[in-house]
Structures are given as C-alpha cells and as structure tokens.
Queue: 2 jobs
Job 1
Amino acid sequence: MQAQAQEAVRWRLDIVNASFMTGIPILTAIGLVWYTMNHGFSSVELGIFVFMYVACGLSITAGYHRLFSHRTHKSAWPLRLFYALFGAGAFQNSVIKWCSNHRRHHLVTDTDDDPYSVMKGFFWAHIGWILIADEERVEKVEDLEADPILVFQDRHVFVLGFLVGMVLPGVAGWFLLGGVTGFLGGFIWGGLLRIVIVHHATFLINSAAHTWGTQPYSTANTSRDSPFLSLFTYGEGYHNFHHTFQADYRNGHKWYHWDPSKWWIRGFSFIKMTSDLHKIPDKTIESRKMKTAFETSKKLSNSEIKENVQSLIDRLRKGYTDLDTHRKALKAAKKNKDGVSSQKMKSLCNEIKKEIKAAKQAIAQIRVEFQQWMDGLPSMA
Ligand SMILES: [Zn+2]
Ligand SMILES: [Zn+2]
C-alpha cells in the first residue's frame, strides 16, 4: 500500500509543463490558421521566424549544450548573455537546470537515473520526462552557479523567456508589419511556432538520436549518429560521436559534416569571443572508429586477431603523429624566414611537403589494409 502511494507520488503529472507542452502547439495551430486566413503571410513573418529559430536554437546547442554543459570551449560574456536570453526564449528551463539534467544524462546514460533514458521508451525520452513530475535527480553544476549571468537567468528564466521568446518577436512584427496585427504575426511565427519547432528538434536528440542511426565510435550506449537530424538541429545529430567524445566542441568532426554550431563557435574565435576550443585528435578518433568497427562486425575473441587489429591501430596512431610533426615543421619553417634564402626555403618546404604526403599515404594504406583484413575474417556475428 505504501509502495503504491510512493509510486503515485513519483509519477505525478507536472501540470505547468504538461499545460505548456500541449497548450502551445494547440494555440500555434489555431493562431496560424486564423492569421493566415485573415492576413496571409509574407517574407517578414518568415524572416522573424528564421531569426528567432537561429537565435534560440543556437543558444541551446552552442550555448546550453556545448559551452555550459560540456565546457568544450570558453566564451566572452556578451555571448554568454546572448545564450542566456535567447536560451530562456527557447523555453527549455534555465541553463543551470538544463545542464544539471544533461550532465546526468551523460554520466548514467540509459540507466534508471538517466533523466531522459530511451530505455523507458521513445515517448519518455522525447517528452514524457518533461510531462511527468519525476523524482528530481540533480548533477553538480557549481561551475555554472559561479557565473552571475547564469544565476540571474535561473532566477528570472520565465520572465526572460516571455519577454525574449514571445514579446520580442511580437514587437518586431509591430514595427515591421505594423500595429496590433503585425504584433500578432511576429508573436505567432517567431514566438509560438518557433517554440514548438525548436522544442521538438531538441527533443529528437534525446529520442531519435538514441534510436535510429549508426554507431561508428562506440556501442557502449544507445547514442547514434544521424546526419539527417543534424540538418535541423545545428549539427547535434552526430550524437554517437558526441557521447564518445563529449569534450570536443564539434559534433560533426569532419569539415564537411553539417554542424552549424561548430562553425558558429569557431567563427567567434576569429574575433576572440570564444577561445580554448577543445578538439579530440584525429588519431584518437580514427583508432576508436577502427576498434568499434572491428568489435561490432566480427565480435571475435581470438587474442591473435585482437593483437593484429591493435598493431594496425598502433601504426595508424604513428601515421597521425608523423603527419602532425611534419605539419608543425612546415609551419615553423615558413615562420623562420630570417637569414634563409628564398631558394633554400622553397626546397626545405618542398622536402617537408613530401614527408606530409608520405604520411598521408601511409594512413590511407593502413585504412585499406584494415578493410581488407576485416573483409577476410570469417563472420561470426
Ligand atoms: Zn551532451
Ligand atoms: Zn544523448
């Protein structure tokens, strides 16, 4: 009887959250239909929507997630303030509360203590955990509590969210479209509709990116890489990479991976607004990838085979170390121009470039060997 009572308390519906999460989409649908029928829509409404979508979305991915939760880089106060204001406008609670949940998610992924564990079902991971007043499980966030901007945001998050996330797009509509109708246009497009879309884009990372996609870097948890999800989540779809290398400011680590959050963070480093951008070395990433490919496809326990794969990984790491050394030497040679004739300099640089090319070829060769070797193994999966 007592256990039942406890259970009932534990699974209580969070009235405020549940009303907001269901009320806003309903209001959005009604508002959009009414507004479009009476006033149509133009590029201005769309422009307000896009601005708010980018500002609030990036505040969650680059700010709440990569800067505040994972400390993958440092950021100047104007950017932190921007994240605090537009992140509040995303209506995903304060930085302090969001990061506390998120750090816990990484620490105990897929367990009962994970606030949005996909093991409790897709719906739970997506939105269920917000609707239900679950037992609070907090992670330490003392580093964030030392930032006055974040303490202020935590204290006034709903007022700030209302002003930045709802009133601001309305005011923009008032000026750009004119009067009360314009205010409603900005409010419906840049406020309501944008809140719903940013919400569910973020939630998909907890649900879909733990359900569908590939696991190139680790199979230790349910996280998956989904380039498709990255298209509308500012690069957060590379979630298997992120769970494996959470200290990296990138989620899509290759230059061609669609990851606007990493471009945003890197872009601000050129004007010194961000610094200490942490990157996991390529050799660590690729050797991890080889190991995972080996473990998942063959699952062999023969120690000789394991040694073989280890020796390939060691050669790969050496290849990357050589590449790094030569690249540094080239940089140093180019810097150190004093007293060296341009002819001599040119030949020295050419020599180093040859070494770089050789190191790249060696890495490519190891990749081919690894693939051939894997293909030749008997499948025991
Ligand atoms: Zn994370
Ligand atoms: Zn995750």
Note: Confidence is low (pLDDT under 50) at residues 1-9.
Job 2
Amino acid sequence: MQLLNNCLKNNHLSNLSNFINALFKQNCLLCASQLHSSLANNHALCEACLKDLPWHPKTSCPQCGLASDGNICGSCISSPPDFDATYSVFLYAYPVDAMMQRYKYGSMLNLGHTFGQLLNEKTKLGSVDLIIPMPMHPARIKERGFNQAHEITKVLTKNHTEKLDFKSKLDHKSVIRQKLTPPQASLPLKERVKNIKGAFAVNGDLTGKRIAIVDDVMTTGASLNELAKMLKKAGATHVECWVIARALPHK
Ligand SMILES: [Zn+2]
Ligand SMILES: [Zn+2]
C-alpha cells in the first residue's frame, strides 16, 4: 500500500514514459511492477494492488448497494428506488477515489480499461437486453473530451469471458441528457434530486426491456434513480445500476 500511496501522491503515472510503459510492457498501473503474462491485457493491476483495493462487500443491500446483512435494507423497503438492483465493484474510498479522479480528469485514461474489465467480472451481461452508459450533456463532453461511463461500457461489452458478442447491447442512443445541470458532486446531497429532475429524455419504446445503466460513481443514486424512472416510463420492466464505486453517503 505504501508504494501505491507514493505513486498516487507523486502522480508519476501521468508521466508519458510510464504511460507508454504501462501500455506496452503491461506493468501494474498503480505500483509499476511488471505483470505476469496471465494478468497482462486483463486488469493491468498486480495481485498485491488488487488485494488492497476497497472491494464492495457482498453483504450489501442488493437493491441500493448500501450496507446491510445481505438482504434488502430498511430504506429500500420503506421507499423503494426506481431501480431494481445495484452492482458495484468498489466502495468509493481511497485509493479508488483518487484513481477515479485521475481517470475522469484525463491523467490516467487507461484506467477506463481496468474499470470496464472489473465491472465485466462483477456483472452478467447476458441478464439484460440493453446496457446504457449514463449520458452526459454534449457541452460537458466537449469540456472533458469523453464520457467516462461510455468508455467503461465499451470495454465492458467488448472484453468478456463468455465469448459472446455483447457489443450490440451497448445503447447510447435511447437516452439523451437534455438539461445542462450543475455537476451533482458540487451540490449538497439534498439538492441533487431536484437538480437532476427532467435532465434526461428517452427516445423510443423500451417495452419489456431489462436494462443496465453504467455509471462511474454512485453517491446518493439521484441521477441513476431519475434515469431508471424515465426508462420505466418508456416501458422498461427491470433496471439495474452497474457502477465502479459506491459511496456511502454522509447523513
Ligand atoms: Zn501493483
Ligand atoms: Zn437498499
């Protein structure tokens, strides 16, 4: 963990030569140790770094992903969200939070491959009809240069173990982000539901579809819930949240 702390602190991975190294020689993205060939092209993380990461516990509420004894939590029973299940790879804690910032703001873009691969291992692509990356407003895509959820979804549907073609399930056309809203992370938790209301427009008929929404971080779940609500209005029967990291909101 010390090595990993140093590398995140020093930000040496944004250095071009390390990036090229990691890309071609398949060194661990976090500690730069050389990977065994069996791990190359897979997560691009060594076993020691993988083991140290804050994995999302199995004893979580299957619907919202928050802490529980493995059964549906009290809050999902008393006020059920519009989505039916949540699958998360990690908890949003150090060093995943630092990795996510590096990925989203462009200094470690190859982490998108790692995240997509790990999400692939966590989810069953065959269990849904469509996989929709959380849409970003065109102005935000222009600002950032890419939609992080879309990039993760591309890897998720391409690298698979079941040898089936899931690329056709990737759907980035059925939903658009029609309202340019302030970033959810910039707002107090209570204002996020209001901020995201009416942000999405669904095109077309999703009758009977089972859908997974892919997002990077799930905090209050307000964006995922609003999108799930819209998808169900358009006919979807089942909506799951597939996320890289689940934050445990502060009350
Ligand atoms: Zn490592
Ligand atoms: Zn719950």
Note: The first strand starts at residue 85 and ends at 91.
